[in-house]
Amino acid sequence: VQLQASGGGLVQAGGSLRLSCAASGRTFRSYVMGWFRQAPGKEREFVAAISWSGGGTRYADSVKGRFTISRDNAKNTVYLQMNSLKHEDAAVYYCAATAVVDTTRSEMYRYWGQGTLVTVSS
């Protein structure tokens, strides 16, 4: 599976962005998809994940209620809708795919996109 993340950019605090991650390959719907982020000087951290069918989701406490992960298996794409953005949300966001159910551990994700930068201004 090859992943291509997009949609990052500069947004004011309190604003919204939607990230997209397009996947190649017919096995996309077999994978749990996740979003991670990494801010300068910090470790990569889990943001959100969604099950194969889209019926199950999981979020980091820091984004719960503000971010929404979704997927469209017909389009081989996973999304991350980010609302009420805060300065601490600024990071490079990565999409990733895993065959492991219900994991937030980055080392369990086998495939990674290249990352898309989100910058939050005052």
Q: Which short descriptors sum up this protein?
A:
four-stranded antiparallel β-sheet, single chain, mainly beta, seven-stranded mixed β-sheet, 122 residues
Would you kindly provide a written description of the structure presented here, covering whatever features stand out?
By secondary structure, the protein is an all-beta fold. The protein is built from no helices and eleven strands. It has strands at residues 3-6, 9-12, 17-23, 32-38, 45-50, 57-59, 67-72, 77-82, 91-98, 111-112, 116-121. Strands 2, 4, 5, 6, 9, 10 and 11 form a seven-stranded mixed beta sheet that branches. The protein is globular and about 40 Å long. The mean pLDDT is 95.
Strand content: over 45%
| Shape category | globular
Q: Number of helical segments?
A: 0
Quickly give the structural class. Answer: mainly beta
Helix content: under 10%
* Overall residue-averaged pLDDT value: 95
**Beta-strand segment tally:** 11
Distance between the termini: 37 Å
Task: Catalogue the unreliable spans.
Answer: none
Summarize the structure.
With 122 residues, the protein is mostly beta strands.
How are the secondary structure elements laid out?
Elements: E1 3-6, E2 9-12, E3 17-23, E4 32-38, E5 45-50, E6 57-59, E7 67-72, E8 77-82, E9 91-98, E10 111-112, E11 116-121
Parallel strand pairs: 2-11
Antiparallel strand pairs: 1-3, 3-8, 4-5, 4-9, 5-6, 7-8, 9-10, 9-11
